[in-house]
Amino acid sequence: MVNQPLALRTLNRTLLDRQLLLERADMGAEAAVAHLLGLQSQTPTSPYPGLWTRLAGFDFADLGRLLTERRAVRVVLMRNTVHLVTAADALRLRHWLGPMLERAFRGSQWARGAAGAEPAAVIAHGRALLREQPRTPAELRTEFAARFPGADPASLVNALRSWVPLAQLPPRGVWGAGGPPVYGLLEDWLGRPLTAPDPADLVRRYLAAFGPATPADMQKWCGLTGLKAVFAGMDLRACTAEDGRVLYDLPDAVLTDPSVPVTARFVGDFDNLVLSHADRTRIVPEGFRSRVMTVNGIVRGVILVDGFAGGTWRFDRAKGAAAVAVTHFAPLSAADRAALTAEGLRLLAAADPGAAHDVTFTAG
């Protein structure tokens, strides 16, 4: 049975609640990464403000330890982008998303350059190289150029990333550490094989973090097709959006009161909060979309004003100083400006404790 349509603010508040953004959660970093089904990490540092804004007492060093202790890992997953996920989810999700990653490579700019080498030979040679030792993309290109002179070595590295489960190893991804990506075999790094997940369980977990939602929403989150049949075979509660779309939710899930106040908040760049629905207006008003998501694929960090994206933000750093630079799309109230200033200073204290701190505001 389809119930009365859900107002946009109900969807907004419910999503914020499930994304741990109404109030900071009393939850450890590993549990939060699992609940969120990972955080996008193509910019290696993005998960740090993403978790800081969601968790009470989060320390940036906590996430670095998860990576170095192999309890979390950075790997190409949803939407063919690097995500930071728990070790267990890396093995489940990489198995589940393998066909999507292979399909994405076939349609990519790299496919033609890799055509001069047999895929099975590339996979075998790449695995052998990475079993010897972890290697950077540059080192892999050198090895592939010598072994497959008829193919473009950069294309072969991108092919290997799609065809073979690879982990990006620390220290890359550890706050304060740098260096190029270093690839290792995911299963060797974690000491466990890939595992086939139950798609219905992944639907339940997606809805717990992003629902109510449609199969098209979940497809936007992960990049995988064929989800409508999985939804259809499950015992889910149906509801409707104001535009008539049928949304699905867990049978016992709670919808959040649309009148719940939301304090001004920072959300990190490339955050799945703004990337995981076909209709993103429950967070990003349509008129602001191009300012948040650029044509060249950049997804800027956003400020939440009354629960919706009301501007963007970034770190600005100079010698001995660090600032949070806010660009707001509409005039900010005195209360919102004060809340963002206080929140920005707390964020800088966690991210750059030894620097002089400032929060700046620009209309844009």
H/E series:
HHEHHEEHHHHHEEHHHHEEEHEEEHE
In angstroms, what separates the terminal alpha carbons? 45 Å
Biggest β-sheet description: 5 strands, antiparallel
| Widest β-sheet, arrangement of strands | 1-3-2-4-5
Rg, rounded, reads: 21 Å
Question: How many strand units?
Answer: 12
* SSE-based structural type: alpha+beta
Strand content: 15-25%
Shape: globular
* Helicity range: 40-55%
What's the average pLDDT? 96
Uncertain ranges: none
Give the number of helices: 15
Q: Could you characterize what this model shows?
A:
There is one protein chain. This protein is of the alpha+beta class and 364 residues long. Among the domains are: 168 residues, no CATH class; 80 residues, no CATH class. Helices cover 40% and strands 17% of the residues. The strands form three sheets. Strands 1-3-2-4-5 form a five-stranded antiparallel β-sheet. Strands 8-9-10-11-12 form a five-stranded mixed β-sheet, with helices on one face. It has a two-stranded antiparallel sheet with strand order 6-7. Helix 15 links the parallel strand 11 and strand 12. Helix 7 packs across helix 8.
Short description:
With 364 residues, the chain is α+β, with helices and mostly antiparallel strands.
List its salient traits.
alpha+beta; 17% strand
